[in-house]
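User: Predict the complex.
Assistant: Input components as received:
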Amino acid sequence: MTGTPFSRRTLLKGGAAGLSLAALGTSAACGSGSGSGSGSKTLKMLYFGEQSQATELQNRLQPEITKLDPGVTFEIAAINGTDWNDFLAKVLTQIAAGTPPDIISVATEGLQLMAQKELAIPLDDYVTKDMANLKEYFADVHPALIESMMYQGHLWELPDSFNAGNMFYDTNLFQAAGLDAPPQDWTIDDFEKAATKIAGTKGVDAYGWVVRLWGSWTSFMYANDANLLEEGKFDGGDWLWNSEAYAGNAAAQGRKGGYQWGAPTANSAGTVEALDYLIQLTKRGLSSSPDVGGGGTLQGRFATGNIGMSIGGGFWAGGLINAGMKKGSFDVTMFPKWKSQRHLFGAGGYAIFKSSKQKDLSWEVLKLLVKPSSFDLVFPGNVTTPGRKSLMTAERYATTGPKNWKVFYDTLTEHPETAPIPAPPYYNAMATALNQRTTQAVSSGDAKAALDGLQADLEKAAAAAGK
Amino acid sequence: MATVTAPVAAGARTPERPRRSNPIKQGEGRFGFAMIGLAVLFVTVFTAIPIVASLVLSFFSWDVISPPEFIGMENYRRLLDDGPVLRSFGVTIGMAIAIVVLQLSVGLGLAVLVNARAQVWLRTFFRTAFYLPLLASSASVSIFMGYLFDYKFGVVNYYLGLVGISNVPWLTSGFGAATTIVLITVWQQTGFTFVLFVAALMAVPTDVLEASQIDGAGGWRTFVGIKVPLISPTILFAAVVALINAMQLFDQPYIMTKGGPGTSTTTVTISMYQQGFQNLQFGYGSAIAIILLLLILAITGLQFLAARKLVFYQ
């Protein structure tokens, strides 16, 4: 040490200074985080998708927002993920990092979590105050979508899009198998007969599916009049259903304050029967083994003519075209009738974060986002189904198809029993368990054992969530 | 000794002065401390503080949204009663053992084979070739391998089909998925141990090898009796690093199987991620992380204890 110019004390001092700098850096980071969306003139929105898309949307909406407040910069941060579960995990990480947004686009999957944790604010007062302006919005958006965005009687989001689990089919494979286009009132037996015929084509899977909550074996579960959780509805919501927005609207009759998901019923007879049905289809060679997650592989295989039928929503119209499928080589029909023809759906919309210091401005932006003119800015190319019926036009589907595009919205109007996916506040834990237990069932061939396990998982998750 | 040392120490001040005033030496000293300081700062900020923060967090219930609530040892008590999480420890240990054993034996085998080649360019070629997979990100390798080993449309099953073998459930059966993930991890990581072993084998003194040849030792006897003991410190280092990596296995199972089918490839890090980031139980996730850390420390400690008897330092 004699030859060194630094003493140990100097080194310790240096180290302490370094640590102080690091600590300062950390606190500075916290400081800047808490500043976001709190008095600054930046309005921040989180969006599920690609950043390039988000930036384009941000640039397109900025002039409209400048009209509302010339001093505000609109900033959309995209969050990438394979599914909503992934998206929500990343959103919560951002919140933990101290950078909450002002506005967030959240689907059914995250609504109750967000509402229960009071991350967002109820929109009731804003809606009531602006009812005169919003009457045309509520008249245009199906009440089922509005109700799906309610929790404990309050409205938490303004929905702008949805996807119901309909059945897409490859018209070429149907033709090759000598099959007619499936009618909208077809049954599970018709589906199975079609699958058996298509399976005769070499190298083709008659049916393809993916492991997830939306549009998986869960669609069969809904059609079998079963569910993963007990279904109920919260009281309340009269402030909206009895308002001038819904005067004389038959579709609003009996609507309440949002879905109340109760005790798990994952191993009920109907649920087991639905999952076992898919397992048996796979064993008989009528269905492919499912992937886990977002469904990109499934969509790709369908688009390349390797799958005869699969569950898809309006987002498949643009998705299949983007994947290279030609218009006319696919079409859509209702999900087949089993015990009922009940479909499931998931909706997307916008909420205002509780931590936002610009709530009034955020509300104005929300109204802007649900305007008919905003829809194609936010979702170019039929990558989801419009929540507004007025946007469901032949022109919209002229370049992408499918021919029976009316099925998307008719699912809500023709099948009023159709309901949102079961997404309680503990959705994330539920989705993880569902994925694990479904792959277990497919691998072992024992639906009952896997769903007994899922039942235990859900009971534990519900208890942990304080249900 | 004292008579020699004392005068040197007493007179040390005089000869030290010119060294202190040497600006080059002084600059080197400053640079050295700056480098050490940076490393210390880096480890403190990115390793030590997070470990301490995780430890503290493991005594709380925290869902990110609500304020943290102190619950003492509850997360650890819960862990002891949590079948799926405990199972993930079993899965991790099983896969880690398989990975370490295969990684070391394949890496050593390849290194011996390559080292036996006389041509330098051939050695360089193989070293580069075997090291290449390590340079690819494990996420992209996992995505790619997921497609290769897909049950229905994977290239592997396609070629097996051409020779009359029916589709193998590489990733859709519990044992198949675990085995495939182990093999892919070994394929990607072996390059690291391989390069270490090649270097170690090249450093074995030739006079020792020549002496063993004169004594009539055959190839296998020389390998077991001379080379392995001489490279045993490298084997220990490779084993420790491989084990630490294997115990933190995440990318491959998460991307290829999401921990499935069922929980057959759910490793501890996946459990930790699920509990923390998906189930919003960050305190519980931290408790799992701390137990994993302790487990890795314990196993590494055992390795060093065993090394006292098995490792030969020249």
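Residues 114 and 120 of chain B are 10 Å apart (CA to CA).
Let me know if you want any component modeled separately.
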